[in-house]
Amino acid sequence: MSETILEVKNLKKHFPIKKGLLHKQIGSVKAVDGTSFAIKKGETLGLVGESGCGKSTLGRTLIRLYEPTEGEIIFKGKNFCNLKKEELRLARKSVQMIFQDPFASLDPRMTVSQILTQPFQIHNMYSQKEREERAKALLEVVGLKASHLNRYPHEFSGGQRQRISIARAIALEPDLIIADEPVSALDVSIQAQILNLLKDLQDKFKLTFIFISHDLKVIEHFCDRVAVMYLGRIVETADRDQLFEKPAHPYTQALLSAIPEVGVGKKQMKKSLGGEVPSPINPPSGCHFHPRCAYATDQCSKLDPILQEISPGHKVACPLYKEIQTKLEESC
Question: What's the pLDDT band for 328 if we cut at 50, 70, 90?
Fold first, then answer.
């Protein structure tokens, strides 16, 4: 069995809301509100949910681009939350990030050569000649040419820019890559190419991925396991096939039912997900999903559900999942 490379325990990221001349804190945005999960080496964990549920904030908090408010991030036996500046700089060699927008994530004033050799400069690795050779090799690995080294980001298409971002992410030979919606800003035809590239790189370099997306079809294609996030909390985790075939949480069921399917004989939508995502400034009490849940009872607004294992590798944060499953089976 593969070793656990990352374990997250009760992670929270709250952004303070301040007002007045004295900047007095009057509240907080609870973007990540008590999240726990683990990922094994070589695995791809998909993190999915509606816009505003805290997926991207979670990804940035894991690498400490945002400082966590509370909780633990255990990466390869070390608590990321306790690392000092120099320790964190060294540890980040093993954890890299691919951002959503390849237009914004690359410095327009730097050439591709400067972008790809910068990680080596920061960590004092290799001679200048070796850095340039490695930059050429990185471009070839991601499907670009060495002749592109002296060009600037604006001279490339969106898909090519994302390839450059991927090359930068793998430059230091990391163990874990956090990919934050890496294909959502690209044309559909290019998305498949980038996903295939990431899969090839994973096989070649034995990479572990946290893949953040709102697109369930992409998650189904690319990920081994899936964690469903709602309003700062993970409400269900399972192997990909298990989750898509037998979702247990009503939020997951609604998300899967909302996937459009085209063609004669395709299944119709079974559920609709009504209402808006509540504000993370003042989330609902108890289960955060209960105001939008068709099966909610009075208890749902009073008790905070915890993730409980309902079958090997399948966890859900809903005490009513058995009753819900029974009702669904009776209605079929």
Answer: low
Task: Give the pLDDT mean for 48-72.
Answer: 95
Reduced to 3 states, what is the DSSP secondary structure of residue 154? helix
Helix (H, G, I), strand (E, B) or coil at 89: helix
Model confidence at 155, pLDDT cuts 50, 70, 90, reads very high
- In order of 114, 304, 328, the CA distances from 322 in angstroms are 56, 17, 10
Q: Which strands form 225-230's sheet, in the order they lie side by side?
A: 95-98, 176-180, 208-213, 44-48, 225-230, 233-239, 314-316, 308-311
Query: Under a CB-based contact definition with an 8 Å cutoff, are residues 238 and 46 in contact?
Result: no
8-state DSSP, 162: H
Q: Do 332 and 270 touch, CB atoms closer than 8 A?
A: no
* DSSP state letter for 207: -
Find out whether 36 and 309 touch, Cβ atoms under 8 Å: no
The answer to whether residues 28 and 17 touch, using CB atoms and an 8 Å cutoff, is: yes
pLDDT interval class at 321 (50, 70, 90)? confident
Nearest to residue 166, comparing CAs of 89, 39, 174, 48? 174
3-state secondary structure of 33: strand
Q: What is the DSSP letter of 269?
A: P
User: Hey, CA dihedral for 8, 247, 318, 31, is it positive or negative?
Assistant: positive
pTM of the model: 0.91
User: pLDDT by residue (tens digit) across 63-79?
Assistant: 999 999 999 999 999 99
